[in-house]
Amino acid sequence: MTNFTAGRICPIAYRYGAEVIALAPVIEAETLYVVGGLYGNHFALQTVLEMAAAEHASVTICFNGDFNWFNVDEHGFKHINGIVLKHDALLGNVEYEFRNENVLAGCGCAYPESVAQDIVEYSNEIHVQLKTTARKFPQILEKLADLPLFKRYRIGEQIISAVHGDADSLAGWAFDAAALKDPANAQSIRQNFERARTDIFASTHTCLPTLRRFDLPARQRYGCVINNGAAGMPNFKHTSFGLLTRISRQASPHTPMYGMKQQTLFVDALPIHYDADQWQKHFVSIWPEGTAAHRSYFGRIMNGPDFLVNHAAP
How far apart are CA 29 and CA 86, in angstroms? Predict the structure, then answer.
């Protein structure tokens, strides 16, 4: 039975379909950083910029949604968006719901039944507070409203589709770590590569990372899906760094957590070693004990989720 609770609903407006991705203009890039789930962590943002500056080739940075979340303070909201909007960016459900007066979608996460109801309610509460802050910055909201739901890039001869959720929806969960490992989903995922006319999907949204390769018999080649999980929070148990997706013909100057060679391209998950101690202190100053974000996320910020690197690595 479908659950119509706020925060679990996927609005019709979120759905575009992979065939529409295939019609998007192609942006040429040398090295692409796809940075999803920054979640308002300005220490992680600064580290990403420093990592890009250390690259040998030109870097295109695409913030593929949910770069806002914990930054309910006015300074934090203005700072994060001021920097992100100087780069390529996509709408995440967090940003999309800033303009939505209908509270039925809640935070817009479209959480599946496997996510506990209290987590859903905490997320809705966080978004209400964040939206209150966002409305104090109408010019930023205008710029956010103009952001697309996906972007297409070309590096060499390969096409990369940056999305927030999956090939069909802003808040889709088909590129979740568990979904990508489920053999029952393999055929539909293969079809997504053909429908979107893409070689690599780079996503986020589900908050846990993964990298999976799929054979594409029609093309006599492979396609891959990489989900960076979260740039602004730990992704693995007992760790304190975020992750970003890096795609390039050149090997990374930063040591990847894991990766694969996709024809001529390096597809890697890079650790974002932000100042974890300072971020934890800053987080508590905004979201003290007892608040929704503290209850929902502080354990992960301190100790990481119950998820291991070998769960994500190909």
Answer: 16
d(CA 104, CA 11): 9
pTM exceeds 0.85, yes or no: yes
Residue 29, amino acid: A
| Confidence category of residue 211, pLDDT binned at 50, 70, 90 | very high
Q: What was the pLDDT predicted at 6?
A: 54
Give the pLDDT score at 113: 64
pLDDT digits (tens, 9 = 90+) for 38-54: 999 999 999 999 999 99
φ, ψ of residue 133 to 5 degrees: the values are -65, -45
* Sole residue written with tokens 């780069």: 87
